[in-house]
Amino acid sequence: MASLTGISVGFLGLGDVGRPVLRRLKACGANVHATSRSPALRYKMARDAVNLYKAPSEVNDQVKDGIIFLMLSKQGLIDAFLNGPDGLLSNLASSALIVDLGQTSLDATQKYAKIVEASGAHWMDAPAIGSEQDAMEGRLSIRVGGRKEDFDRARPLLEAIGRDIKHMGEIGSGQAAVPTT
């Protein structure tokens, strides 16, 4: 695994695949800042010495202009983490990059990209396909949609969690390249 020492990363979505992805980033040296609305998950992740916060805005405070990964299974969860007084959009740095690792509809992906870009930050769709075991072993397949410079910026982090990584083109092309579940 390549070293990610000194890189601050935000992470939202501590489900079955999200937790091992977060652990891999941390094992590579990234300074990971996460949040979960579930007290039980916060407890589990605290045992892994992950920096945990109660609200997405607190993750922004730590990551500032870094990269924030979303690994959420439902559009309603993305809405909840982005919006509201303590959501990501409340204090998102203008040079931050949000990378959606979940399988999100094309319409929602384009909507979120416009909202984030209106704040001066950037959005990249990068659905990560694979099992919990694939995540633990860093062999997820990832198809990326977004600006080439954002892809280049996120690539070292993506390489820590995946083996089959391809930049497909503009926003939404990552989502369009994976089969719907």
Could you write a compact summary of the structure shown?
By secondary structure, the protein is an alpha/beta fold.
Structural notes for this entry:
This protein has a single domain, classed as NAD(P)-binding Rossmann-like Domain (Rossmann fold), CATH 3.40.50. The chain starts with 7 loop residues before the first strand and ends in a 5-residue tail after the last helix. The radius of gyration is 14 Å and the shape is globular. 39% of the residues lie in helices and 23% in strands. The longest helix has 14 residues. It is built from eight helices and nine strands. Strands 3-2-1-4-5-6 form a six-stranded parallel beta sheet, sandwiched between helices. The chain has a three-stranded mixed beta sheet with strand order 7-8-9. The chain has 181 residues and is α/β, with parallel strands linked by helices.
CATH superfamily placement: NAD(P)-binding Rossmann-like Domain
Head-to-tail CA distance between termini = 30 Å
Helix and strand composition category: alpha/beta
Going by CATH, the architecture would be 3-Layer(aba) Sandwich
Radius of gyration: 14 Å
For the secondary structure, the number of strands is 9
Largest sheet: number of strands, sense, barrel closure: 6 strands, parallel
Number of helices: 8
The parts where pLDDT drops under 50 for at least 5 residues are none
What portion of residues belong to β-strands? 15-25%
State the CATH topology. Answer: Rossmann fold
- Overall structural domain count: 1
Listing every helix as H and every strand as E from the N terminus to the C terminus, the arrangement reads EHEHEHEHEHEEHEHEH
Shape: globular
Which bin fits the share of residues in helices?
25-40%
Biggest sheet strand line-up? 3-2-1-4-5-6
Chain-averaged pLDDT: 92
CATH first level: Alpha Beta
